[in-house]
Design a protein that fits this description.
The complex is a heterodimer. By secondary structure, chain A is of the alpha/beta class. Chain A is 35% helix and 10% strand. Chain A starts with a helix and ends with a helix. Chain B is built from 14 helices and 13 strands. Classes of the chains: A alpha/beta, B alpha/beta.
Chain lengths: 523, 448
C-alpha cells in the first residue's frame, strides 16, 4: 500500500470534517497492516549464536531461494500482535453469551500451572520412570471425570469435542463388529434434528448413515418417533443432554433402555455437561459413552478457536475398544499402554492422534477441578442454570421463548418478537456488537426459527446480567419502534463493520502474496 | 468461591424474580431417579495456594528436558520459545475469545490466522494452508481422507519413513470409510523404493521428510511418479524447523503437506496441545478439511478477514461435510505465528542451520563411540543410530544417570519389529557441548 496516496486521500477527508484520520486510527482503535507489509529486510526478532564448524549433511536438498517471510524486530512484533489483540472481543472484556459454547471465566491459575517446568518441558516419549508426575496428573483428571459422570472407563486422547465423538462412535462401531464377528450389518445412527453438526458428520466418517429424529413440541426428542425407527439396522443414537435447546432430555433412561433392547449403543454428546455437573451422573442415565469438552465444563481457554480436549467416558461394554494409549497404575507406579500388542484382553480400535492427548488442557482442567472441588462444581451447575433462567425470566415479556418451562444453562428464544419489525436475528445480533456485547448464538439450533441461544454461564455477576438484560430490552424496544435501518446498518463502531462473506467465498484470498493485490492496495 | 460472582443474596433475589423457591425447582426436568444425591470420591474446593502447592508437587515428580541433557525428538522437539511469544498468547483478548464467527469483533484472531496461513504456505512451498488442525498426526489422517475425495480412489500407500503415530492415526481414521491403507515396513536405512507399489488405484502416497529415522531425501522423483499415476503426494514433516534448511516439499512436487508445528512457539508439554499444519495446492482448496480464513472488505470498503468456504464444514453440511472437525488449534497456531514472525526470513533459516549444525556435530562425536552406528548420511536435526545393545535398556540406564538419550524405535513401533537396537537422537539449538559430552561419555560407558 502506498502511504503517500493514503495521506492525500485522508487529508482531504480530514478537511471535510469527517472522522477519518491520517492513518485510519480512531483514538485507541489502531489500524494495523499485515506483518508482510511492515517487512524490513535486515530486521530480526531473535538473536542466535554462530553455529561454529560443522559438516553440512542435507543430502543436496538444502534450501536455495528466499522463503518470503517478513523481517521484523521484536518491538514491532510485540506491537503488531498487541494491536491485533485489541480488535478482539473476549471473556476478559465482557459478557459472552454464546449459547452452546460456554464462554466462562478462564482462571489464570490454570495458565500458571500449565507453565510449571515439570509439565511444560516434559517430552511425551521420556522413559516412564521420569514422568510419573505427568501420568499421575492424567490419572487424576481421568478419576475426576469418571467419578463425576458415573462411568467406569475413559479414553483421554481425543483432542476436541468432535474428536471425542469420533472416538465414541468408533468404539461403538468396533463393539458392533466384535459382537457380530465381522463388519456390522447395522448401518444407521439416529441423531435428533436439533443436534450439533458434528454429530451427523461424525457418524458419516464412521461409515454410518444418519437418520434424523424429530424434536417434539417441547424441544425434546420425540420418543415415539424414535422408538418407531428402531430395528436391526440401527447402530446407535447420539443425543446431546442437556440438548441444544437448553433443555434436559427427561426420557434419557427410557431411550437408553429402548436402544439397548434394539441392540444399539447410546452416545451422549456431553457438550452441555456444565449444566448438570455434580447433580446428575450421565452414567445413571444408561449411556454408553460421552465426550466432555474440557474447554466448556472445565474452563480451559477457547483461545480464538482451540485447542480443545475431548476425553470420552465409556461404559463397560465399550471400554475394551478404547484407543491407545492409556495410563495404567501398577505395583511399580504408572505406565503407559501404547500398542495393541500390550493391551492384554482389550481390543483398541486404533490410535486417534500423536502421543497421549491434550496434556496442557488436562493440567488446566485439573487446576479448575481442584479449585472448585466437588462442592464448587455442583454450585457451578446451579449458578449456570440460575443465571440462564434469570435472563429468560427477565426477557420473556419482550422476547419470545422458544419453549415453555425452566431451561438449563442456556435460554432459547425464537424471532417471533421481531415479526413485522423488519429486523432479523442477524441484525439484532449485530446491534448488540455496538452495545459492547458478543452476540448470543444465532440460527442454532436449526429447529427453532431465527434462534437466539443465550448462555450466560455461572461466571457472570448479577450486576453484569442486569446490564445485559437492560440492553436487550432497549434493543427490543428500538426494533419494535420501527428503527430497522439502524439495525441493518449495525455495527457502526466495531473495528470493522459487516464484512462481505460472499465475496470472500467467491474468489478466496487465503494468504498474503506479493503477486496478489490486497483489497487495500487495489483501491 | 472465587470464580463464582453470585452471592447468596443475589441468588435469592434472582430465584424470587424467576418465581421459584429453590434452584432445585429449575431442575424439574431431571427425573428423580437420575438425580445424584450421593457423595463423590473427590475433595472439596481449595484455595489458590493450595492448588498451586498440590500441582507443583505433582509437576515436581517429573524429570524434564530442562533439568538434564535431552536428545528426545520423534515428533516433539525442545526449542527455545522467546518470552514475548508466551506473553502475547496470554493476552486475554486472544486467550479468552471464541472462534471468530463474529468477524466485526474478531479481526485480531482473523488477521493472525491469515498471517499463519500465509506463513505455512510459504514455508511448505504450497499455495494455500488452512487455519490449523489438532496435530500433525490428525492432519496426516485428514490428508489421506482428502486424497480419496480428490482422486475417488481408495488405496493409500504410507511409506516406512512416516512416524508410526501418523500412520496409525491415518489407518484409524480411514478404518470405516472404504480406504485400504498399506503401511510399508520401517525404513530404517532410507533405502525404500515406493515406485513399483504405486498403481492406478493409489489415491495417495504418504512420505515423511526428514523420515522418522532421520533420512533426508529429494522427493522430486517420487513426485514425478505420483503425478504420472494420478496419485497425490502427501509429504509429512514432523519437525517444522527443518523447513528453514531444506527445500520445501512444494519445491519437490508435493500435492499436500501436513506437518507438526509444535517446534515453533509451542512447548513439548508432554505431547500436547500441538498444532497441525495442513497445506495444499490451490486446486484442492474446496476439498480441504478445517477452517479457512479469507480476505474481504467491509461495507466501508476497508480490508478485513472472515472465516470462509464454510460450506465444506460440519455446521453447514452436517453429514456431507469434508470432515467432522469443528475446531482448530487457535492459540497454538498463534504461538507459531508470533514465533515465526520474530524469526523472520533470516532467523528461521539461521535457526534451522543451527539445529542442523548441532546434530551434525553430535553425529561426529557419536561416530567415535564403540557400539554406536549413525544410520543416515543425510539428516536434519535428528538421526537414528544402531546400538550394540537394546536401545530401551540403554535409555533407561542413561535416564538413571540423568541423560535423556533419545527415543527407542521400539517405543514407537512396539516390540518385535527388529528395531530393538535402534535409537532416535535429536539435537536442537539448545544442545550444548556439555550436553553432547554427557551423552557421549554415558553411552561409551554403557556400551563398553
Amino acid at each position: 500500500m502506498s502511504h503517500s496516496r493514503d495521506l492525500s486521500r485522508s487529508a482531504a477527508a480530514v478537511g471535510s470534517g469527517t472522522t477519518d484520520t491520517v492513518h485510519g486510527h480512531q483514538g485507541l482503535q489502531l489500524e494495523e497492516p499485515l506483518l508482510f507489509e511492515i517487512d524490513n529486510p535486515g530486521a530480526i526478532g531473535v538473536d542466535l549464536p554462530d553455529p561454529g564448524d560443522f559438516t553440512p549433511r542435507l543430502g543436496g536438498v538444502a534450501r536455495q531461494g528466499e522463503i518470503g517471510l517478513p523481517c521484523v524486530s521484536e518491538p514491532e512484533v510485540v506491537r503488531h500482535f498487541t494491536r491485533l489483540s485489541q480488535k478482539n472481543y473476549a471473556i476478559d472484556m465482557g459478557t459472552y453469551p454464546l449459547g452452546s459454547c460456554t464462554m466462562k471465566h478462564n482462571p489464570r491459575l490454570n495458565e500458571k500451572m500449565v507453565r510449571l517446568p515439570g509439565f511444560a518441558n516434559a517430552h511425551p516419549m521420556q522413559p516412564e520412570s521420569t514422568v510419573q508426575g505427568a501420568f499421575k496428573l492424567i490419572d487424576g483428571v481421568a478419576h475426576w471425570l469418571k467419578e463425576l459422570t458415573g462411568m467406569p472407563a475413559i479414553a483421554m486422547s481425543p483432542a476436541a469435542g468432535a474428536h471425542g465423538e469420533l472416538c465414541g462412535v468408533m468404539a461403538i462401531r468396533a463393539a458392533l463388529d466384535d459382537r457380530e464377528g465381522g463388519p456390522t450389518t447395522r448401518r444407521r445412527i439416529l441423531v435428533p434434528d436439533s443436534a450439533h453438526g458434528t454429530n451427523p458428520a461424525t457418524a458419516a466418517v464412521c461409515g454410518f448413515s444418519v437418520d434424523a429424529i424429530p424434536s417434539d413440541a417441547r424441544g425434546r426428542v420425540d420418543v415415539k418417533a424414535f422408538a418407531e425407527k428402531l430395528d436391526d439396522d440401527v447402530a446407535g443414537i447420539m443425543i446431546t443432554n442437556p440438548n441444544t435447546c437448553g433443555l434436559f432430555e427427561p426420557d434419557m433412561i427410557e431411550i437408553a433402555e429402548l436402544i439397548h433392547d434394539a441392540g444399539g449403543y447410546f452416545y451422549c454428546d456431553g457438550a452441555n455437561f456444565n449444566a448438570i455437573v455434580g447433580r446428575v451422573r450421565p452414567g445413571d442415565l444408561g449411556i454408553d459413552c460421552m465426550h466432555i469438552n474440557l474447554h466448556k465444563t472445565f474452563s480451559t481457554p477457547h483461545g480464538g478457536g482451540g485447542p480443545g480436549a475431548g476425553p470420552v467416558v465409556l461404559s463397560d461394554a465399550l471400554a475394551p475398544f478404547a484407543p491407545v494409549p492409556w495410563v495404567v497404575h501398577g505395583d511399580e507406579g504408572f505406565s503407559l499402554v501404547e500398542h495393541a500388542d500390550d493391551a492384554g484382553d482389550a481390543k483398541p480400535f486404533g490410535r486417534l492422534k500423536g502421543f497421549h492427548g491434550q496434556m496442557g488442557m488436562f493440567v488446566r482442567a485439573y487446576a479448575y477441578m481442584l479449585s472448585h472441588g466437588r462442592d464448587g462444581l455442583r454450585q457451578v451447575a446451579n449458578d449456570a442454570v440460575l443465571n440462564a433462567n434469570y435472563v429468560m425470566s427477565c426477557l420473556s415479556d419482550v422476547m419470545t421463548p422458544a419453549f415453555e418451562g425452566p431451561c438449563m444453562h442456556e435460554c432459547l428464544f425464537d424471532d417471533r418478537f421481531l415479526k413485522d419489525t423488519g429486523v432479523s436475528t442477524l441484525d439484532f445480533a449485530k446491534a448488540m456488537l455496538d452495545e459492547g456485547y458478543h452476540p448470543m448464538t444465532m440460527y442454532f439450533p436449526l429447529v427453532v426459527h431465527g434462534a437466539m441461544l443465550i448462555e450466560p454461564t455461572e461466571t457472570e455477576s448479577k450486576r453484569g446480567l442486569d446490564e445485559f438484560i437492560a440492553v436487550m430490552r432497549a434493543l427490543v424496544e428500538r426494533a419494535k419502534a420501527g428503527d430497522s435501518d439502524a439495525f441493518m446498518a449495525a455495527p457502526m463502531m466495531t473495528p470493522r463493520r459487516r464484512l462481505d462473506e460472499t465475496a470472500a467465498a467467491r474468489q478466496p484470498i487465503l494468504r498474503w502474496s506479493p503477486d496478489i493485490p490486497t483489497a487495500e492496495a487495489a483501491e | 468461591m472465587r470464580y463464582l460472582p453470585l452471592t447468596d443474596a443475589d441468588r435469592s433475589s434472582m430465584l424470587n424474580r424467576i418465581g421459584v423457591s429453590s434452584v432445585d425447582d429449575l431442575f424439574v426436568d431431571v427425573p428423580a431417579t437420575a438425580r445424584f444425591d450421593g457423595t463423590f470420591d473427590l475433595p472439596d474446593h481449595m484455595a489458590e495456594f493450595e492448588v498451586e502447592g498440590h500441582m507443583s508437587a505433582i509437576a515436581g515428580q517429573n524429570t524434564t528436558t530442562a533439568d538434564v541433557p535431552s536428545f528426545l525428538g520423534a515428533g516433539a522437539y525442545r526449542h527455545h520459545i522467546p518470552a514475548s511469544v508466551d506473553h502475547l498468547i496470554q493476552r486475554g483478548e486472544f486467550l479468552t475469545s471464541y472462534t471468530p464467527y463474529q468477524p466485526e469483533i474478531s479481526q485480531g484472531t482473523l488477521q493472525a490466522l491469515f498471517e499463519f496461513q500465509s506463513m505455512v504456505a510459504l514455508i511448505t512451498g504450497m499455495d494455500v494452508a488452512n487455519a490449523s488442525m489438532y496435530d500433525g498426526a490428525t492432519s496426516c489422517a485428514e490428508a489421506v481422507l482428502m486424497a480419496r475425495r480428490v482422486t475417488r480412489r481408495n488405496r493409500a500407500l504410507i511409506s516406512g519413513s512416516v512416524h508410526p503415530h501418523y500412520s496409525a492415526a491415518s489407518e484409524t481414521q480411514a478404518k470405516y470409510v472404504d480406504i485400504n491403507i498399506d503401511i510399508c515396513d520401517p525404513d530404517i536405512d532410507g533405502t525404500e523404493y515406493l515406485t513399483e507399489l504405486i498403481d492406478d488405484e493409489t489415491a495417495c502416497v504418504v512420505v515423511q521428510n526428514p523420515g522418522v529415522f532421520g533420512h533426508v531425501r529429494d522427493l522430486s522423483p517420487l513426485a514425478a511418479v505420483c503425478q504420472d499415476k494420478g496419485a497425490l503426494l502427501i509429504v509429512v514433516v514432523t519437525e517444522a524447523v527443518s523447513l528453514g534448511a531444506m527445500q520445501s516439499p512444494g519445491e519437490m512436487g508435493a500435492d499436500v503437506v501436513v506437518a507438526e508445528g509444535q517446534s515453533i512457539g509451542n512447548p513439548q508439554g508432554f505431547g500436547g496441545p500441538y498444532v497441525g499444519l495442513f497445506a495444499a495446492r490451490e486446486k484442492y482448496v474446496r476439498q480441504m478439511p478445517g477452517r479457512l480464513c479469507g480476505e474481504t472488505t467491509d461495507v466501508d470498503g476497508k480490508r478485513g478477514w472472515v472465516l470462509t468456504l464454510s460450506t465444506r464444514e460440519q455446521h453447514i453440511r452436517r453429514e456431507k461435510a469434508t470432515s467432522n472437525i469443528c475446531t482448530n488449534a487457535g492459540l497454538c497456531a498463534l504461538a507459531f505465528t508470533i514465533h515465526l514472525s520474530l524469526l523472520g526470513e533470516n532467523g528461521f533459516r539461521d535457526l534451522a542451520m543451527l539445529n542442523h549444525a548441532r546434530a551434525s556435530q553430535l553425529a561426529d562425536r557419536l561416530a567415535g563411540v564403540d557400539g554406536v552406528e549413525v544410520l543416515p548420511e543425510a539428516f536434519f536435526n535428528e538421526f537414528a543410530v544402531r546400538l550394540s545393545k537394546p536401545a530401551g535398556d540403554v535409555v533407561d540406564r542413561l535416564a538413571a544417570r540423568d541423560v535423556l538419550a533419545g527415543v527407542p524405535a521400539a517405543r514407537l513401533y512396539g516390540a518385535g519389529r527388529e528395531l530393538d537396537n535402534i535409537l532416535l537422537i535429536a539435537a536442537s539449538e539448545q544442545t550444548t557441548p556439555e550436553d553432547m559430552e554427557a551423552l557421549v561419555s554415558a553411552l561409551s560407558e554403557e556400551l563398553s
